Amino acid sequence: MKTYFMKTYFKRALVLLVAPLMAMLLSSCEKDLTILPVEPTIEQEVTASGTFAVCSAKVTCPGNITVEVEWSLTPDMGNAQRQTMESDGGTFFTATMRGLSKKTTYYYRVTMTNRFQSLSSAVAQFTTLGSYVPEGAVSGLFSVSDSREVYFSQGNLQYQASTKTWRFAENQYDCVGSANLNISSSYSGWIDLFGWGTSGWNSGANCYQPWSTSTSNSDYYPGGSYTNNLTGSYANADWGVYNAISNGGNTANTWRTLTKDEWVYVFNTRTTSSGIRYAKACVNNVNGVILLPDDWSTSTYSLSGANSSGANFTANTITATQWVKLEDAGAVFLPAAGYRGEASVGSIGSWAFYWSASYSNESYAYGVSCNNLAWFSRYHGQSVRLVRSVTSNPSSVFTVDVSANPSNGGSVSGGGSYTEGQSCTVSATANSGYTFTNWTENGNVVSSNANYTFVVNADRTLVANFVAVSSWPNGVLPGAFSVSASQQVYFSQGNLQYQASTNTWRFAENQYDYIGDANSNISSSYSGWIDLFGWGTSGYNGKNPYMTNTYYSDYGNGSNDIAGTNYDWGVYNAISNGGNTANTWRTLTKDEWAYVFNTRTTSSGIRYAKACVNSVNGVILLPDDWNTSYYSLSSTNNTGASFASNTISVSQWDTLEQHGAVFLPAAGDRSGTWVSSVGSGGRYWSASYSNESYAYSVWFSGSYLSPQDGNDRYYGRSVRLVRSAQ
Question: Which CATH superfamily is domain 2-127 in?
């Protein structure tokens, strides 16, 4: 929309009335003329869209008046069209000028008339919008209210979970169909039927991911309340607001979902040049509903059963070639893509169900069923067709600002002024001692690629984020974790490992690496690596890491903790890829483990989540400053969650790890030389003893988690070391 304003003053007219006429005028014209000098004014403005413009006027003139707006293609107002303006009961008047052409200059004026005079404002002009069609949009303009027009997207919304990618269908008649049954957090195919408000934004709803399949309507309440729409404070629950659509400009907050009132306006209320708003049809052998733009001409294509809710899809049979002609003229097609229920996909080809952004009640949200407004269970998977506002003329110039964080972390390029619709590539290059992590805008990650390409359709402020690598000690992960109210630590890059033949200690290369069944080869001369150790077997005082006997008293430091002593693996030993200096690392106490899992305060409110990373089950620990924009995790802070709650690829894990996430793999445990629970359970030693037989450890499985579990000291458990962040 673009607004034009003008104010017109008229010269004061003093009417001298002789006494004999005074009484007559006062009695007959008292509502139309004042005896005092008057100075009429007209303040007018026009807000222009693509095919219509709204004229608003404030008219100051005593008496009863009528107000009219007229518009023409020429400044002399030849062949002008006229529209009487409606009054609000006071001095304000409005009228909508319809049937306009896109990106065309019009001339207009406002005229006020009472029974004695007719006065017109000076001729002004405005230019309609809409010649530029944004990426991913159909060219037609559709009124969704008396003062707003939108473009529809080129196809239904689709999502690929394995890559977290959103896109529009390639063709308007494309739909996924029964393959929606493959919905999951790791599915590598595409889905296009979604529960209400499942944009991926954690609004406080139990179900907010696009792969959500819960059949409880209350799980789909944005912000936890059924009265919240996908607008205002909860607009990010709208798929188009929160997400960057890869073939729709690839920028978040560009598209949106229509409200129920807007859907009703599109189907039943708006005025079109042809008088036709919609028609049911079969396009390229796909049933659905055609929406015709405001400026549709019947000469483009003749449709039967127009504006008829009872028409059949067979009323219009249109080939793919014929559809190209309609689409080029701005027509939109909503395919009858069916819906997804609890364990089935139904009504494919016979019904179209499209979500709105409006709630109905505690169980339902509004949507469109073929062409009628209806309400549906929130958990139903339904189609989503996004829209975006009419953009300004393509000559608009936008600014792309780029900066580095920290400023000495690296260099950035690609910023500057760009014409709307122009492609822009911004690049980030890390300085020595730093590594690039991502591009963010307003704190939200928009790309993890150092070379980020997008279509410019608004001002952008992009920040390239770098992490100092030279400042981190060897073997340290970048996230800081509170282990008490006054102390933070860094975790090691992986579980502790030992090679007896060379007496060498090291950290695993990757956080998800573990030895597994090969721990059964444990011996004083074994040339392979082990990573399951009896409690306190640092090598000090004869407590060797290759011990396998099952006598409790042989392990640790009697009835004492090993914290701060040489019995702690990290205190006594030099870790080859962890600085190679003794007394650098240590093991957390039982209270510190409990603080990490249960007590500490984090920026996101999330402390941990179970997951499967690179096909390895385990637990993710998130640092104190974790931001949910880095990656969205499900079933957080939930001891009973399953590992399948989050399925994360290697490339996705790289993003989490760069932001400080820690992964504790389910590496199993060992008794003597027998290894068990590999891949299904994890046990990590603490530095705290429990009694003469037991020491404390962290224990987790696919349905259980305890940060303070007492177990036999002779069991072989995983060791994950930390070092002070101070």
Answer: Immunoglobulins (2.60.40.10)
The Cα 435–Cα 341 span in angstroms is 46
Three-state secondary structure of 46-110 = EEECCCEEEEEEEEECCCCCEEEEEEECCCCCCCCEEEECEECCCCEEEEEEECCCCCCEEEEEE
Instruction: Look at the alpha carbons of 470, 471, 475, 479 in this order and tell me if their dihedral is positive or negative.
Output: negative
The Cα 694–Cα 710 span in angstroms is 6
Give me the residues paired with residue 491 across strands: 722
CA distance 153 to 175: 14
Are 514 and 508 in contact by the 8 Å Cβ rule? The answer is yes
> Strand 124-127 relative to strand 86-87: parallel, antiparallel, unpaired?
unpaired
Tell if the pTM clears 0.70, that is, is over it.
no
Give residue limits of the domains in the chain.
2-127, 134-392, 397-468, 476-726
Q: Round the CA-based radius of gyration of the chain to a whole number and report it.
A: 35
Q: Are 136 and 251 in contact (CB under 8 A)?
A: no
| pLDDT (tens digit per residue) in 370-395 | 767 678 899 999 999 999 987 654 45
- From the list 67, 63, 102, the residue with the least C-alpha distance to 84 is 67
Residue the block writes with tokens 């139309």: 32
Sheet holding 481-482, edge to edge: 481-482, 488-491, 722-724
Report residue 220 as tokens.
């789909």
